[in-house]
From TrEMBL:
Protein name: Response regulator
Gene3D superfamilies, per database record: 3.40.50.2300, Hypothetical protein af1432 (1.10.3210.10), L1 transposable element, trimerization domain (1.20.5.390)
Organism: hydrothermal vent metagenome
GO molecular function: DNA binding
Classification of source organism: unclassified sequences, metagenomes, ecological metagenomes
Regions annotated as coiled coil: 142-169
The entry's keywords: Coiled coil, DNA-binding, Phosphoprotein, Transcription, Transcription regulation, Two-component regulatory system
């Protein structure tokens, strides 16, 4: 049972002869030993050194072994504590084990039993400490990897948003009359999304979809987009193709897959008379309905080649007039009652 000198043992027994026998045995085995002849002295020594093993007599004057054990356990959960007693009492043995003792030996201690107990308990202690060390390292590694992944995800989100904003600027470059339109529609949409208590993923999809709702207008002739007068039926039918063109443009961009529905269906109506697919209300989603209303409000309150902007009050009246037919009533109510148009 040869051991590293750094392993410190505290022998606690009010019988000096018993301490001496244990000291000779453990010193010969390579341990560094100290004595304490009562509980008070034991606790004092325990605070002064880092003991790996305590041999603790149960019956001592003053603070007995069980109370000493309790206080040791409050200080150190890793220290091996082997209880020693001259009384063959099962209840006492069970009590000491319940209070945190690692083993229980009857005095006079058979040295071969002590040897076996010390070796097995110190081996268990070493395994517990080693496992904790690796567990801590693993947790640190997981935390580090999680932090790296979170940073990477944040970077990707920023990059994706920059890409989407660049695409939105390309839309507005085609039609100078809608300068800032995509940003304003996005602002209104996000306000509505927050008021509607959308989750984080829905808000991200809403932002992408709102910024890119008109990307299909890249495929619409500039002469039609900038026409000063009313559009002919043929011209309007051409404009109505922009949602499908927009869907096709972003269909190969993986992170925009969820936003495709908004881009394609932001002109569908509550009554099913919208375009391009005349979707009934139950087949639409809340995100496309939000962008529909935000887009309509900003269009009404902005100058266009063929008309001047409507005043705020008039635009809100039109939203109310078209509740349940073009727009979702709950969204209109949120938009107006919470003054999200400000």
């Amino acid at each position: 049972m040869s051991q590293d000198k750094s392993i410190k043992v505290l022998i606690v027994d009010d019988e000096k002869e018993a301490c001496k026998i244990l000291d000779i045995f453990l010193t010969k085995a390579g341990f560094e030993t100290d004595f304490a002849f009562n509980g008070v002295e034991a606790l004092k020594r325990f605070k002064e050194k880092d003991y790996a093993l305590v041999l603790l007599d149960v019956r001592m004057p003053g603070i007995d072994g069980i109370e000493t054990l309790k206080r040791i356990r409050r200080e150190n959960g890793d220290c091996v504590v082997i209880m020693l007693t001259a009384v063959d009492d099962v209840d006492t043995a069970l009590l000491t084990l319940k209070e945190g003792a690692n083993d229980f030996l009857r005095k006079p201690v058979e040295l071969h039993e002590l040897k076996h107990s010390v070796e097995s308990q110190l081996e268990k202690r070493a395994l517990i400490i080693e496992n904790r060390f690796y567990q801590t390292r693993l947790e640190d590694k997981v935390e580090e990897q999680t932090k790296s992944l979170n940073e990477l995800n944040a970077y990707l989100k920023r990059t994706n948003l920059e890409i989407v904003r660049a695409l939105a600027e390309a839309i507005e470059a085609k039609d100078p009359y809608v300068k800032g339109h995509c940003s304003r529609v996005t602002s209104f949409s996000l306000k509505l999304g927050n008021a509607y208590n959308l989750d984080e993923q829905q808000m991200e999809t809403l932002e992408y979809g709102a910024l890119l709702h008109d990307i299909g207008k890249i495929g619409i002739r500039g002469s039609i987009l900038n026409k000063a007068g009313p559009l002919s039926d043929e011209e309007f039918e051409h404009v109505k193709t922009h949602p499908v063109i927009g869907e096709r443009i972003i269909s190969h961009i993986d992170f925009l897959k969820d936003a495709m529905f908004i881009v394609k269906h932001h002109h569908e109506r509550r009554d099913g008379n919208g375009y391009p697919d005349r979707l009934p209300d139950e087949k639409q989603n809340i995100l496309s309905k939000i962008v529909l209303m935000a887009d309509a409000y900003d269009a009404m309150t902005s100058d266009r080649p063929y008309r001047k902007a409507l005043i705020e009050r008039k635009a809100l009246e039109i939203l109310l007039e078209n509740c349940g037919t073009q727009f979702d009533s709950e969204l209109v109510d949120l938009f107006i009652s919470k003054q999200l148009y400000k």
